[in-house]
Fold:
Amino acid sequence: MSSPEIDALTQALSRLPGLGPRSARRAVLHLLKRREIALKPLISALQAVEQNLATCAICGNVDTVNPCGVCTDPRRDAKLLCVVEEVADLWAMDRARLFPGRFHVLGGRLSALEGVGPDDLSIAQLMARVTAGGIDEVVLAMNATMEGATTMHYLAERLAGSGVSVTQLAHGVPVGGELDYLDEGTIAQALRARRPVA
Amino acid sequence: MHLDAEALVCAAIAHGENGAVVRFLTAEAGLVAAYVPGGRSQRLRPALAPGTRVRLRLDGRTETQLARAGVEIVRSRAALAFDPLALALVEWLAGLAATLLPEGHPYPRVHATLESVLDLAELQDDPLVTLAALARFELLLLAELGFGLDLSACAATGQTEDLAFVSPKTGRAVSAGAGAPYADRLFRLPAFITNGGAASVEDVAEALHIARHFIERDLLTGRRAANLTAARDRIEARLKR
Structure:
């Protein structure tokens, strides 16, 4: 039997993605047992984020500064803009550090059944960034889903007359993937995107 | 409820962390909803894309309980993602079926025609053929749901020949002679709808216009209509090009 405060902490943690009541209880026990090395640093980290949390007014990224670190990084190529669906996608793209440009987060993808239309996404902000000039290429890095493809085609049409080069991510066999385990849709996309061997 | 059949995925809505509530269209049982554990996982997500034909194994303790389902891809339509028109078609058709068809009532003709329109979208090079099939499907859907157009005879004269118009109010055909004075208030009836054969761009556009009018008036009412018809707008925009 634990105190109401500890119960409240357990309940709060159990609502996080990937955690259920049992794993939340284990996490709480871990925090309580290692108060100095786990609980206190976690509290200060949460407080620091809570106090400074901001959505970047330029790209829609989530950071503790506004504009975010990605938008203000002078080493990034301002002529390259990568459009992603969610902040998680931006972080995934940036984790690899392969994309030298900047980002734009749409905040979702078009979905007729879920009631998400163009006005629900930051498409107007994207168009404003492109029309403001200084961008040579827009990379549409949508997820390889029907909704992602719909969003990509929609954006490609909207950007068609803007004078920038519009590209999309390649789809196909993942690194380490075996053909035998791939669905036929992925194989079809890989075949379509085949290229001469260098 | 137990079902082991081939089904068309119509809509998948995220449920919980990894699962999805999915609406399938089967020939035998019509539209069925089921919970697919792990439906948002990397392995299952391609199988639950709208338009995919899957082997569906469905188990529910009672008729009213949301059943649990296991799926396996029979035919992926992921290749349609390259073509904006085909993509809009899948979105519109799958959304239409998921939204309009009542659950648990078989509509074998709707199922078969929907499959054939999707096949055309995938295999047919001429988009006009696919869009003509779409118009026919929409008219069939209206008929199957009890709002069919009566194109068998003229509403004014009863004649069965020379039908040239459709009344936007009654959905009944009007002959060229009887409809001529009111032509500006009637829909032009494209010949391919009643007689078959090839259709021009104007014919297909008119047929789609007629079908949309009655679908929006009689079937697609309410909040979700506007979002769903966005896909239909994209189809029509492609045709205009």
Summary: Chain A has eight helices and six strands. Helices of chain A lie at 4-14, 21-33, 35-52, 69-72, 87-95, 123-131, 146-159, 184-192. The radius of gyration of chain A is 21 Å.
